[in-house]
Structures are given as C-alpha cells and as structure tokens.
C-alpha cells in the first residue's frame, strides 16, 4: 500500500487531494493546526487516514508526523501555507518579523520535513510535491511577502530535484481556488474554481509521475 503525508489537509487543496488519493487506496497521514477541523476532514476523506494535529513549524510535531508514517513513505505533499498578516501589506510597510514568520511556515518547515523523511523517500523511490503559487513569479501588489516565500520554495525544490535523482520533486501551482486563504487575501474567492479542480489535476501528476519540475494545474488538466 502506498503512503502519503499531506500537510494542511483540514480544508482546501490538501483535503481535496487527500480524498483523491484515498479513493485510490492510499494510506494517508494528514495534519493541520485545528483539531476539530482536522477530525472532520479525516472523516470526510475516508479510508486509512491518520490525523495528527499540530503546526508544521514545530519540530516536535514534525517528529510526530514521521512516527505516524511508520513503515515507509511514498509521497510527501507540502501544502500547509500562510499568507502572512492580513490585510496584506505592500513591501514598504511589511514588518520583517512578519515576513520571517511567513518563511518559517512556507519555506523552512517544508525543508525540515523533507529532511526528516528523505531516507524513506529515497529507499522507496518516492516523490515530493511542494505547493507553490503564481505569486512566486508574478508581481502582484501586496503579495510580495507571500510570493517571495513561494519563490524561495520554488528554488529550494529546483535544487532538491538536482540533488535527489532517486526522488521525484514537483513544485506545482494550483492556480486560483475558492478557499479561505484566497478569501482572506481580499480576492473574490467565490469567482474561483473549487479546490477539487486543482486536486484532480495534481492527482494525475502523482499517477503519471513525470520528471521533476515546475507544473501548473491548469496545464496538467489541459493535457488529459
């Protein structure tokens, strides 16, 4: 049985992708900070799901996730993310301490978790899916802090792909989705597609296992 670890799975893309993999019979380890929301998500996802409540920036929680995987890992999905402070600031007014917190969640925690599980992924020739954003490559006003963190995650993934030839490394832009995160940014989330659309595209990425690289959910959907 394949095993996947998905962070930030209580809602949005993480929850939708977990449902996709559960239907394929994957064993899942999922996390989120809100225990009640994560418990509800685990019931919705169905199948063999282990829910571990905690914050990915906490080393003790990451150790709990590694213990929960127990038996080997085939896929790590670094989906947990933060916008940073809202309303979102222009760079001229963005407190550096807030940016440091954003990097802690969006860059440092994913790298730390990757380091924790790499031996298992190497052994099983598994895969890493890092969720990025078009904000990493576009100059959207007030998105500088979040976008910079995602650009760092992009380059981290790019170098990791070169360093780990036995592990598939994908960094994927899901596009706009009708999620609480997009709504918190002040954008019109109701006009965006549901996260299930991007999840279906990323599901194909996992199934097809293309070469390491940066992918867009919209392109993956068009290629089907």
TrEMBL record:
The keyword Cell membrane does not apply. Keywords: Oxidoreductase. The keyword Oxidoreductase applies. It comes from the Bacteria. InterPro entries: NAD(P)-bd_dom_sf, Sc_DH/Rdtase_CS, SDR_fam. Belongs to the short-chain dehydrogenases/reductases (SDR) family. This is SDR family oxidoreductase. It comes from Actinomadura meridiana.
């Amino acid at each position: 049985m394949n095993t996947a670890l998905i962070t930030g799975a209580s809602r949005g893309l993480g929850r939708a992708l977990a449902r996709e993999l559960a239907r394929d019979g994957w064993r899942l380890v999922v996390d989120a900070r809100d225990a009640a929301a994560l418990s509800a998500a685990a019931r919705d996802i169905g199948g063999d799901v282990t829910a571990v409540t905690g914050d990915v920036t906490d080393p003790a929680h990451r150790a709990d996730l590694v213990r929960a995987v127990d038996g080997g890992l085939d896929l790590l999905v670094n989906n947990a993310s933060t916008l940073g402070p809202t309303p979102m600031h222009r760079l001229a007014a963005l407190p550096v301490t807030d940016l440091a917190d954003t990097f802690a969640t969006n860059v440092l925690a994913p790298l730390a978790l990757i380091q924790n599980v790499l031996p298992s992924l190497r052994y099983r020739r598994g895969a890493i899916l890092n969720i990025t954003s078009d904000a990493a490559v576009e100059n959207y006003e007030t998105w500088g802090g979040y976008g910079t963190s995602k650009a760092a995650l992009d380059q981290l993934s790019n170098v990791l792909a070169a360093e780990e030839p036995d592990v598939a490394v994908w960094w994927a832009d899901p596009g706009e989705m009708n999620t609480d995160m997009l709504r918190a940014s002040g954008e019109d989330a109701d006009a965006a597609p549901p996260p299930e659309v991007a999840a279906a595209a990323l599901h194909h990425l996992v199934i097809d296992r293309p070469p390491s690289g940066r992918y867009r959910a919209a392109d993956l959907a068009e290629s089907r």
